[in-house]
Amino acid sequence: MKQLQTLTKDQLYKRIKEKSEKLYTITHEALENNFFNESSLDEESLAEFLEMLDDETAEKIKEASLHINNEDSAPEIVLIENKNNTSLEIFTEEGEGYKIILIEEDIHLSGNLFVEDYIILIITGSIFAENIIVNGSLYCSGMVSSKVLFGASGNDNETYIGGSIMTSLIAENGHYTVAEGNIYSRYLISFHNEIIGKTGKFIENITLEKPSEIGLLNSSILDQDGYFDEDAFLNFINDNTPDTLFNKPANLF
After folding, report:
1. What global pTM score does this model have?
2. Bridge partners of 176?
3. C-alpha span between 160 and 38 (Å, rounded)
4. What is the dihedral of CA 118, 223, 149, 96, to 10 degrees?
């Protein structure tokens, strides 16, 4: 992974818009709402608020308001080039905070794509990988083809795909996943959020979308209380096919 340059917010939006108007609309809304929306009191409202406080407290708040710099707290935005065709793991360094990564090309990997919690990955192309694990957010203008597409983020983040999704297993554990096109998959697991194909969702074998159906999953990916164990699941899919995630043999589906 080669870092090409650091971008401003406006440069990021310009590059995305040149590649895909739809991706621009989606990412602009998400980033503005989560990172760049400046919601501050106007001067009149601030003055009215300060009048309700004692002089010492009011002076401290007034002084602090003069030093607020939204740019300092905004995430770093980086344009990168992927040089790896095996696997791609995108992390932040300790204490770095959120980071927005832009890749302006298709991603072809024989191994996994992993997106860490504090990463917002934007790809103006398609993704082909063995497994795609999204703990942060993923925005892709093209299609996705993988064995497993899995999102987990405690309902905080999302995966947006501008084309269709083709997988053996598509799953989420507190992660919103949406494709503008179709979703084609042999299996689907979704207990905490939504997996949406706007023009269609075609699941060949089995769909698990109710907590009461968790007993159909292999006990190896459940914790001692019978709940979905994310770490066990991630370890399991690296060494096993999606068919073996379920208690019944695949030929019975």
Report:
1. 0.85
2. 158
3. 25
4. 10
